[in-house]
Each structure stands twice: as structure tokens, then as C-alpha cells.
Amino acid sequence: MREIEQIYHNDFGIAFYWKNHNETLFDKIQLVFKETGFCFSISELKDFDDLIEDSMIANECCDECALKNKCHKFLLKTPCSQIDLAVSMDELKAIEDLVKGSLFKITLEEYVYGVGMN
Q1: Which of 17, 35, 39, 71 is least surrounded by Cβ atoms within 10 Å, i.e. has the fewest?
Q2: d(CA 108, CA 36)
Q3: Alpha-carbon torsion 38, 80, 55, 67, what sign?
Q4: pLDDT in tens, 40-61
Q5: Does the predicted TM-score (pTM) go above 0.85?
Q6: β-strands 23-24, 36-40: how paired?
């Protein structure tokens, strides 16, 4: 099995960098959830974050619904134009946490080990 360097995880999935011969490959982020894996650049991960936000806004009717976020399903667009995912609102919230948490950790690492170094 290949080695990884974890970026962020929650109960729904994980984001990580692949390692090759003990060297971390920072050019792509592997995002795995719901038996699905995406290998995104940081730019694509940010695009996915925007698409998740759009879906949250378009499908925020769940507060008034008797099923309370459990209904099945609506389509979530991805940065891969040929791929949409069928997700519930609960799954969308978990994906949102995974993506936002990953972007936060990546940004923090870039600051601490980049601009923030003295």
C-alpha cells in the first residue's frame, strides 16, 4: 500500500497527499468519501467548495421538511464537468466540512511554513 500524508478527515471521508519514496506530493489532494475518490489540485478543490456552497443555497429547503435532511437525493456538481454526485443534505454537509477543513489546513500550512516564517 502506498503511503499518505493526511490533511483532514471527518466521519464521512478523508483528504490526503500521496507520498512517493517518502516524499510528499503536494500538487494534488486526494479526497475520498462515500466510496468515491477525487484527485484535485488546490484550485479544483476551491472550485468544488464553491459548487458545494451553491448546492447548499439551492437546497436549503430542508428546515421546513418533515424528513429533516434525510431525503434522497439531489445532484452535486463537481469540478469534473462529466461527474455529478447524488447526495442527501446530511452528506452534503459532511462533504462541505471535509472540503472546508482541508482548505483551512492547507492554507494554514502554507502560511506557517511560507509567509509566516521568520
Answers
A1: 35
A2: 26
A3: negative
A4: 999 999 999 999 999 998 877 6
A5: yes
A6: unpaired
* Per-residue pLDDT tens over the stretch 61-94: 656 666 656 666 789 999 999 999 999 888 999 9
The boundaries of the domain holding residue 93 are: 4-115
Number of domains in the chain: 1
Q: What is the pLDDT of residue 66?
A: 66
Which residue is it, cell 454537509? 93
Q: What does the block give as the cell for 52?
A: 458545494
C-alpha distances out from residue 3 to 16, 33, 47, Å: 10, 18, 27
Instruction: Of 81, 74, 35, 45, give the one whose Cα is nearest residue 57.
Output: 74
- Separation between Cα atoms, residue 45 and residue 105, nearest integer Å: 13
Q: Quickly count: other Cβ atoms within 10 Å of residue 111's Cβ.
A: 11
Please check the confidence at residue 15 and state whether its pLDDT lies above 90: yes
